[in-house]
Write a structure and sequence with these properties.
Blueprint (H helix, E strand, L loop, with lengths): L5 H19 L7 E2 L2 E2 H29 L1 H6 L3 H26 L8 H4 L1 H21 L1 H5 L25 H6 L1 H9 L3 H31 L6
Antiparallel strand pairs: 1-2
Helix pairs in contact: 1-10, 2-4, 2-10, 4-9, 4-10, 6-9, 9-10
Length: 223
C-alpha cells in the first residue's frame, strides 16, 4: 500500500514537467522580481508543488500504513505536519505570483481575458475557500482522516460549493493560479497554472483516491 500509485505518479509528474518546459520554451531572460529571475521563479513554481505533493504522500502513507508520525511525534504529529503542509500550500501561489510579475506582459491577450475572466474565475475560487472553512474544515482538507480513525465515519459534505462537486478544492480552488497568470498576461505563469492544476489531479488519482478507498471503503491498515 505504501507505494501504491506512486510509479504512475512519478511518470505523470515527469510528463507534466516535460510539457511545461516545452510550452515555456524560454522565459524572458530580462524579467525579474525581488531580484529573482523569471527562470528561477518558473523553476520554483514547478518544484514547490512537486515537493508539496511528495511530502503529503510520504506523511499520509507513513501514518496510514505504520502510524509513523504519531509514534515519532505523539499528539503533536498532525500539527507539525499541518504547519509544513500550509507553508508549502501558500508557497505554491506565491511562486506563481512572483513568476507572473517577473514575466508580465509576455503574451498578448484581449482585455476581457485579463480583467473579466480573472474576476469570474476568482469567484468560485474564493467561494471554495469559504466553503472549506465553513463546512469542510481545514484539518479534514489536510488529511486528518489519515491520523484519526474517528473521521472514517464523517459524512460527505454537500454544503456550499460542495453541492456542485465533491472535489471542489481541486476543481475550483486551483482557479486562483489561472487568475494570477491571466491578470498579469504572463505566458510562463499560465504554464505554471496548468502545471499546478494538473499536478494536483495527479495527486488525487495516484495518492488520495487510493487512500480514501482504504480509509472509507476498506479496512484501515493496522498500526
Amino acid at each position: 500500500m505504501f507505494f501504491k500509485g506512486q510509479l504512475l505518479n512519478l511518470l505523470l509528474l515527469t510528463a507534466l514537467v516535460i510539457i511545461a518546459l516545452a510550452l515555456v520554451v524560454s522565459p524572458s531572460p530580462e524579467g525579474s522580481f525581488l531580484g529573482i529571475s523569471t527562470t528561477a521563479w518558473f523553476v520554483a513554481s514547478l518544484t514547490i508543488p512537486i515537493v508539496h505533493q511528495l511530502f503529503v504522500w510520504l506523511v499520509w502513507r507513513s501514518e496510514l500504513c505504520f502510524s509513523a508520525i504519531t509514534r515519532m511525534l505523539g499528539r503533536i504529529g498532525f500539527t507539525v505536519y499541518g504547519v509544513v503542509f500550509m507553508l508549502l500550500l501558500f508557497l505554491r501561489p506565491l511562486a506563481v505570483l512572483g513568476l507572473a510579475v517577473s514575466d508580465r506582459g509576455s503574451i498578448h491577450l484581449p482585455v476581457a481575458a485579463t480583467t473579466l475572466l480573472p474576476a469570474l474565475l476568482a469567484i468560485p475560487a474564493i467561494y471554495t475557500l469559504y466553503s472549506v472553512a465553513r463546512y469542510f474544515g481545514f484539518a479534514r482538507a489536510m488529511g486528518i482522516d489519515h491520523f484519526d480513525p474517528a473521521y472514517c465515519n464523517a459524512p460527505l459534505v454537500r454544503d456550499g460549493i460542495f453541492r456542485f462537486t465533491g472535489n471542489a478544492m481541486y476543481t475550483f480552488g486551483f482557479f486562483i493560479f489561472w487568475v494570477i497568470a491571466l491578470a498579469f498576461s504572463s505566458r510562463a505563469a499560465l504554464v505554471a497554472a496548468f502545471f499546478n492544476h494538473s499536478a494536483v489531479w495527479v495527486h488525487y488519482f495516484c495518492t488520495e483516491r487510493p487512500d480514501m478507498d482504504l480509509i472509507y471503503r476498506g479496512t484501515r491498515a493496522s498500526s
